[in-house]
Amino acid sequence: MCGENTNRLSYPDIHALYRLTAEAGQGKGKREPEDNQPGDRGIVIRFHADTGKRYADLLQWGLIPRWAKDPSIGAKLYNARAETLHQKPSFRDAFARRRCIVPASEFIERKTIGKPRGRKYAFGRADGSHLALAGLWEGWRDPSTGQWIKTYTVITTDANAIVAEVHHRMPVILDPDQWPVWLGEVESTEAERLAMLKPYPTDLMASWPVGGARPVHEAEPEAADLFSIAAE
After folding, report:
1. What is the pTM of this model?
2. Which of 73, 91, 125, 168 could make an S-S bridge to 85, C-beta 3.0–4.6 Å?
3. 182-206 residue pLDDT tens
4. What whole-number distance in Å separates Cα of residue 40 and Cα of residue 84?
5. What is the DSSP letter of 215?
6. Taking the C-alpha atoms of 25, 31, 36 and 38 in order, what is their torsion angle to the nearest 10 degrees?
7. Helix (H, G, I), strand (E, B), or coil: what is residue 43?
């Protein structure tokens, strides 16, 4: 399953790419690259219907359903399977009402297929641009303290051909034209949302061993270029 990713985008890049307002979300300056794993707090893009704006927030990776008695279940719910999330009590309400995007530069999988097993491989876009991973989020109120904890999960689907050489699952990757529907800015049916949860095209991706050199590609688009793509 998808249990690790890296986010190298600066705050200005995130704000430009996702069309966030200047005051929306976390920070405005440079930031260190994040290596995110379950239990960590990572940047998540959400849409607030009351304000009509997108925000970048720090949420904890590992979804805690609202009905959970304690937060320990979150350690198991860092992924949601695309094929069954609309039926599972842990995810179906969030799938209907609380969807989000997890920005990432690449995701990382440990080789579980073929030999040698155990080595980590990174996967990203062949052109070097960033990934928008499909996620769900929840708010859980700790009954002992009254504190609200916001958490998220990354949605996975069957691996495409390039990921299948390493692992049988991969995160769902969204294109910019899908963001408004996924974030809830545009009305959609359950069937329309489920249709988005497909393996990403193999020919648009690249892979490389963690610690090794990323394949040579065209220059990564600047934030302004990415913004133009997202705005089309």
Report:
1. 0.89
2. 91
3. 999 999 999 999 999 999 999 999 9
4. 25
5. P
6. -40
7. strand
